[in-house]
Specification:
single chain, two-stranded antiparallel ribbon, mainly alpha, 248 residues
Length: 248
């Protein structure tokens, strides 16, 4: 019993970190900000990972995130803790996300460069199919209850960490640059670099989020690995800051 629970926890953690890698490298840095260009084969792999482990439609995610940057902590920000309170954003982030993601006009406005493909229409836009395949595979591999437990822990963990980037990393932490986001290294470890959120808002098109001494960005490590084997190309070798002002 104990060993099975431990195995379920380990599998859930591994799946969540794979989903976090796909989210930060593909959805965030490559798709939403064009900070890195990924090869077509690697892009296809990431699209299937996102489908199987998150159920997210990439163009919708990009649209929501781009709107967040366009209206950061203003009234039109989809998930601003300044407007809504960090607890509400943390606990209801998925609903706040869906409010924009399900609006075709907003998706078209903020992701006009990301048209729906035939593969999307036929397969990848069917979120429940991908999530059902993942859950079913875990049940076959681990057994009924352990498989369901691993799937549930993964889905909940992923949603909570995604919410934390929008909620906690806009409320608590360090602000070396003058924007409303914050840096939290512990959150960056858990989200493959996303916790260095103040840095990201300071230089949105940078593929590297670790801009200060001692900062660690696991997502950047993955991008450098992909680059070395010819699967990725970084847009800017040096960060391009939207503001040169540094907080006192």
């Amino acid at each position: 019993m104990v060993s099975t629970i431990v195995l379920a926890i380990v599998v859930a953690v591994v799946f969540t970190q794979i989903a976090n890698i796909a989210t930060t490298v593909y959805l965030h840095r490559a798709l939403a900000h064009r900070a890195v260009a990924l090869s077509p084969p690697l892009t296809l792999v990431f699209r299937f990972v996102i489908w199987l482990l998150t159920g997210i439609r990439p163009r919708q995610w990009a649209a929501v995130h781009r709107k967040h940057h366009a209206f950061t902590d203003e009234a039109d920000d989809p998930h601003s803790p300044k407007q809504l309170g960090w607890r509400r954003v943390q606990l209801t982030n998925v609903m706040l996300y869906r409010a924009v993601a399900r609006d075709p006009k907003q998706v078209a406005r903020h992701a006009r460069d990301l048209p729906q493909t035939r593969l999307d229409r036929w397969l990848l836009d069917h979120a429940m199919v991908g999530l059902a395949i993942t859950t079913g595979g875990l049940v076959v591999a681990l057994g009924w209850w352990a498989g369901v437990l691993a799937a549930a822990m993964h889905f909940v963990g992923y949603l909570l960490l995604s919410g934390a980037v929008n909620a906690i990393a806009h409320t608590f932490g360090e602000r070396p640059y003058q924007n409303s986001a914050t840096n939290l290294q512990w959150l960056a470890f858990l989200t493959c670099g996303e916790g260095l959120h103040n840095n990201h808002h300071a230089a949105p098109t940078s593929a590297r989020f670790s801009l200060g001494r001692g900062q660690v960005d696991p997502g950047w490590w993955m991008i450098r690995l992909f680059e070395r084997v010819g699967l990725a190309q970084v847009r800017h070798r040096q960060p391009v800051f939207v503001s040169t002002e540094v907080a006192a």
